Structures are given as structure tokens and as C-alpha cells.
Amino acid sequence: MILLGREKPYRREMTSGNLAFAEAMRQINPDVVAAYPITPSTEIPMKFAEFVADGLTDTEFIAVESEHSAITACVGASVSGARVMTASSANGIALMHEIFPIAAMFRAPIVLGLVNRTMGAPLNIHCDHSDSMPERDSGWIQIYCEDAQEVYDTVLLAVRLAEHRDVLTPVFVCQDGFITSHCYEPVEFLSDEIVRNFVGTREPFWPLLDVDVPVSYGSFVMSEDYFEIKRTQLEGMSNVPRVCGELSRELAFVTGREYGAVERCMTDDADYVVVVMSSAAGVAKDVVDSLRGRGVKAGCLRVRMFRPFPYDEVRDVLGDKLGVAVLDRSVSPGGAPPLAAEVRTALYDCPRRVPVASYIFGLGGRDFFPADAEMVFEDLAEGRSGFAGYIGLRDKYARGRRAV
Amino acid sequence: MSAVNLRELTRRDNPLCEGHRMCPGCGAPTALRQAFMGIESPVVVTGATGCMEVSTTVYPYSAWRVPFMHVAFENAGAAISGVEAAHRALRRRGMFRDGIKFVAFGGDGGTYDIGLQSLSGALERGHDITYICYNNQGYMNTGAQRSGATPRSASATTSPAGAKLPGKLQKQKNLTEIAAAHGIPYVAQTTLHNPTDVIAKVKRAVETPGAAFVNILVPCPLFWKIDPADQTRICRLAADSRFWPVYEVICGEYKLSYEPKKPLPIEEFLRPQGRYAHLFRAYAERADLIKEAQSDVDSDWERLKSRCG
Amino acid sequence: MSAELKCWQDFPPGGIAFGATARQVETGLWRSMRPVLDAVRCVSCLRCWVQCPDASIITDSDARVSGVDFFFCKGCGLCAKVCPAGAIVMRPEAEFLNEPCGAVQGTSPEGR
């Protein structure tokens, strides 16, 4: 299958997370893209607009007047039967917030490149997860990528996943703003032919544009039916693990790269494991390598899929550990940080109590250093659990790299 | 304007069917039914949140014979943009039928106020759509609050006439001119004074390639506090008093569609409506506000006339 | 409205509803005043038909007004007000207690 095309099946280029996303869009050639500029995701619609201007896609590109209209136009186009993509960040995501649950309820497949950036105020354009985490209950699938290669592979997967008859649920493909979106690294692209064979064309379900079978979307539903209708929506999400597994294996057949809901790095025999998401996993995995060289049984668990959350996998990996540290790149003021809350939920049913230490790091693009990860493993060896502090925060009373 | 043959139209199914739950005598379903009467092609409709949207889609029933979508309050313009773009893209793939028309509607709340940005974006981008505002001059779905379309001195629930304040203090904004300022090929303003006018204007709007906007003044019997049977009479008074001029802007050219031979004083339009009752109390008549209403009407009319050349 | 409440598995995805199903909703139950058509006076100018918010004026294949659909008519009285021939008068529903409430005056509409 791979060798049938005239093009070379693969090409390797230095590129960024944003440009890899845009290149995937060009190859997918979606029917409609509606987008609005916001740092750091702007490059995606900008690059894509170039492709449209050069006639490299035949997408209807709608340069809308706000993110709210971007996602609304995407919902309209998706419900109509089109294959639809967009991108946004931070305040743009917040402005779209009202429409996310509507898209999910309409079972409107949309792939949104979410380039993580902190939510103001104060105004800051750099990475944390405070834009995507508030959307965790909006009914969208959330996949967090570590690097540009994973962004590229995941976009291809996300199109099939969102449109799968058993799923019909929109997807956020998240990457860390600037860290992943703007840094250049080698990425292996598939040929256009392979991509088009993999993504195929969308077969819509109850499309709005079918004037011969008119349906109404967005009805007013009283309490007597609302609960049942909401339950129909949840079915899509519950089918994601199965369908995503099948699609990931199919994609891995052409890419040679397979991703699960979590990525395990030296976790099997580890005593202590750090749980982290997105680009910071690179630092954590490096530190695990060096600690292993010093005889420390360290491991790293990267959570790639946050919705649906892989509770079983997380429990299987962490259930027998001496200590677990969870690193959140966002806060839930007055409550448990989102990733820590999920990991603790996953571990609650273990026969043995696993100590979990929870940290906040990297807000507003604050760098995460190997020394930070080393400190976390030292904490675990000392038996630390509960809220363990802010990593890298300047604090008058800070002990070492951590403020509590 | 093309002639409208009502006899022919009775043979056609209207996209908006019976069994909707709008109040008896409401102007909005009359306006939308008339609007759809002149459209011969298949249509897809999107609606902003509001009375019409809620009352036509009470689950599991739908009063729409045609595909219909409601997304939210402030985004009917963006929603229809996405649908129209999808149609163009999918036609290229040979999917669905050719020649489908795209109509969005909203009340004045969803059009003048919260949906103005989305509407403006859709007009500026020039999608091949028609946006119809059924304008009852306030937020009726939530209980008669004032909007940017509520006229001066009208008593609404968030601008009530009280011991100190005489209803709304500000004049309504002129959305038809705002729409025309986008330079789109067709803009029109009308009311239910003459059914063939609504039918012909929307027909023209839909048949004009590109974005079109039609602003239809419709009474809400509950807010305006009128007899539900009086919608046509009140709309005639709106046109005859020049309170609501009936005109078109075709590719930038203003054209009056109806000019009252003997314009009525504004009082004739205000007096039958309960929302202006505080202006006409015995021994406490607010002649000053009635005069102000007249001067609002006169200055707007003069400006419109000057544009009509 | 169906008496039997469905389980969630019986609902179509997306919360969709199907076109023109509102024709099963008897909005005529709201009516307190009933329009009564005098077929002799009626000139079939169609003003009532074009203005009726509830599409309750029935026309025949020659586009002549042939009755009122009381399954839907909410009794607003607009038709009586716009009639130039005085062919429609509004009467209290109490006068028609012996008639079935969903009755149609004139010919029955198709497809209900």
C-alpha cells in the first residue's frame, strides 16, 4: 500500500508544531476551515491560508471576525456534512466555550488545533494548560501531544476518530504554545497519497444539507427528554478508547509510530513515577534516564489522552508504586489541580494506598528544568504526598526549587 | 418589484408549518411565513435563540419542513456562513442538491444587540445568504426587556415607565442603515402593513447573489400591549406615520417602497399601544415626549428622503 | 404526544428532531374564540390566508378559502380583522361545546 504511490512515501523536514499541523491540514484537504488569529495558534490558519491562496487545497476557508464565529461556522459546516478543522488558543478557546458543548451534543466532528497558552489576566502569551483544562467537561476529546511529530500524527488520527460512526465527537489536538508550536525539530511527513488514503472522505450522519430528509438541530428540550438526549451524547465518548486503539494501530502501520492513551517510560519496575503531560514529559524522561544511570528506579508516565481519561491504564501503571508525583500546568484555585485529581481518582480503587504528591509548574511559560524533575524524585524518595508546592516560583520562603 | 400572485402561493408548502407554539396573533410567524412564501428553491434555515426558535422546535416536534439549525443566541450569522460554505465545498464533491438557498433569522435582540458582530462578519464576507430580522423591538423570549431596537419612551421591563423615568431614554439604533453600510447588494426594511411587500422583498433578497438583509417590524401583542387581532393595523400605522419607513437599498441605491400620501402624526401609532400608555394619562399627558417622538420620526424621514435622491 | 416515555437508547443521535412533526401538535386547544366563516360573503381575497400566523386558513385547489383548521387555529381573531368583506366573525368557543374540538370547518387538509 505504501509503495504504490509515485511520491516518496515519507519525507523528513525541519518544522514546527504549528507548521506540522498546517501541513497535515493541507494533506487532509478539509471541506471547511473557519479560523481567527490568536497567538500562538495564528500560524496554523496563516499557513493554511497560503495553501488556499496557492490553490493547493480546495477548502472553503472562512476568515471570520471572532473565535465565537469560527467555532459556530465550524459547527454549521460540520452539521451540514463537511469535514471541518480550525485552531485556537487561550482567550480564543474561552470565547468559543459556549459553543463547545453544543458541538458535542450535535455530534459534530471537528478537529481543533489547540495551542496551549495561559488565560489572562495578567496578559501572557506563553504556555500553560489553563485554556484547555476548563474545557474538560465540554464533551470534546482532548489529546495532548509532546512534540511536532506527534502533533502531525495525531491530526491525521483525530480526523478519523472524530468522524467515526461510533464516536462522532469533536477533538482538541493540544500542543504546548511556543515550546512545541514554534520550535523547529525534524518531522517525518507521509506522502499526500498515503494521508488521503488514510483519512478518506467523511460520510455524514443526518446531514443538515439533505433537503429531502429535513431534520432540525438544536431543539428546545424540556426536562422529560433532556437527560435521555444528553445520555446519547456520552455514548460517543465511551467508544473512544476502542475506536482510538483500532485507528492508532491502523495509522502505526503506515507511520511506524503508535500512541496509546498514556506513554510509559521505564514505569514497569519503577518505584517512583512522575506523571506529566505534553512537552514537559521530554525533560522528565531525560531525568528518568539519568537517574536510572545512578541506580534510582525512576519512571515517567505521560498522559496523552485527558478526555476520555484513561483511568484503567493509569491505575495499572501506578497501582504498585512507592510514590507518584503529578505535575499540573494549570491551577484550579481552591481545588485539586486537574491532572492530580484524575490520577488520585484512578488510584482510589487500588487495594494499597499509593502516596500522590501534587505540584504546579510552568504557569505562563515558566521553564521546567531537569533540576526541577530531579527535585520531584527526591521528594518522592522522602515520602512526600499531598500538595507539594509550586515548582520554579520565586518565594521568600522557598526551599530550593520549590515554594509551598 | 416583481408581482406577487397569492393564488399561486397557496399551492406551495411553507417551510414554516402549523403546530408551532408562538402566541396567538404574534407578528413573527406571520412575517416569517410571508418571507418564505416567495422562495421557490429549497432552503436551509438557521435561527438565533428567541421566541421563534424556541416555539418552533419544542422537542420532539419541529415546525420546520426544511432543514433547520439553532446553535445559540449571538451567532445565527456565523452559523449560516458555515452551512453555506459547506454547501459550496460539498457540491464540488457532488454531494447534496444544487441551488439551495440559505436563510438566517433572529429577533432584534439576536440581531441588533448580541448578534450584531456575527451578522456584520457574515455580511462583510459576502456569503450568499439572506438574514431576516423579525424586529419586535425588545427581548420578548425573556419577558419584554429593552433592546437596542426599543424606541424612545417605550416602557419595557428593563426600562419601565416609573415615577421618575418615562420608559426608555434612548432612541433605537438604525440597524438597516448599519447593514446597508456594509455595501452588500440588497438591504430592505418593511413591516406587515402589506403582505406582498414582505414576500417580494425576501424573494428579491434570496434571489440576489451575495449577502442580503431584511428588517421586518413585527408587533408582539404582549409587549406592545395591543389586541392580538390588531397586528396588521398597527403595522399600517407604523408605515403611515413614517415611524417605520418601508424602503430598499439595492446596490447602494436607496428607494422608498411606500410613501404615505398623508402622513399620520406619530401619536396615532403610539396611542393604541400599552407600552406608551404613560404618555397619554389623563391630566398627565407627556406632550413633550410625544413631540420628541415626532421629531425623531421627522429627522429620520428627512435623512432617508435625502438618501433616496 | 405519546404516552409512553422512551429510553435513551431510542433517541436519535445529536438531539435531532424530524421535519414538520409539529403538525401533530393541537394548538387549537388554546382557543377561546372561534372564527366562523361565511362562505357566501367570502371573496377569497386571501388576506386572512396570507396573514394567519398559524397557517390555519384552508384553501382549495382553486385557491379559494374553504375553511379554518381548528386543530391549529389559536383564535387570535386576526383573520376577522383583516377581512374586507366581513365574512369572518369571532364567536366564543362555549357556543360550540357539542362539536369535537379538533374539527375542521370546510375541507380537511391533507397529510395530517
Topology (SSEs and partners):
The complex is a heterotrimer of chains A (404), B (309) and C (112).
Chain A: E1 10-15, H1 17-28, E2 32-35, H2 43-53, E3 60-63, H3 67-80, E4 84-88, H4 90-96, H5 100-105, E5 111-116, E6 141-144, H6 148-163, E7 171-176, E8 185-190, H7 192-199, E9 215-217, H8 223-238, H9 240-255, E10 262-265, E11 272-276, H10 280-293, E12 298-303, E13 305-307, H11 311-318, E14 323-328, H12 338-347, E15 356-361, H13 370-381, E16 386-391, E17 402-403
Parallel strand pairs in A: 2-3, 2-4, 4-5, 5-7, 6-7, 11-12, 11-14, 14-15, 15-16
Antiparallel strand pairs in A: 1-8, 6-13, 10-12, 16-17
Chain B: H1 6-9, H2 27-37, E1 43-47, H3 51-56, E2 68-70, H4 76-92, E3 101-107, H5 108-113, H6 116-125, E4 130-135, H7 175-180, E5 186-191, H8 195-207, E6 212-217, H9 221-224, H10 231-240, E7 246-250, E8 253-258, H11 266-270, H12 287-308
Parallel strand pairs in B: 1-2, 1-3, 3-4, 4-6, 5-6
Antiparallel strand pairs in B: 5-7, 7-8
Helix pairs in contact in B: 2-8, 4-6
Chain C: E1 17-18, E2 33-37, H1 47-51, E3 57-59, E4 65-69, H2 78-82, E5 88-92, E6 104-105
Antiparallel strand pairs in C: 2-5, 3-4, 4-6
Which descriptors would you attach to this protein?
heterotrimer, A: about 400 residues, alpha/beta, Rossmann fold, 2 domains, 7-stranded mixed sheet, 13 helices, about 35% helix, C: about 110 residues, mainly beta, Alpha-Beta Plaits, two-stranded antiparallel sheet, elongated
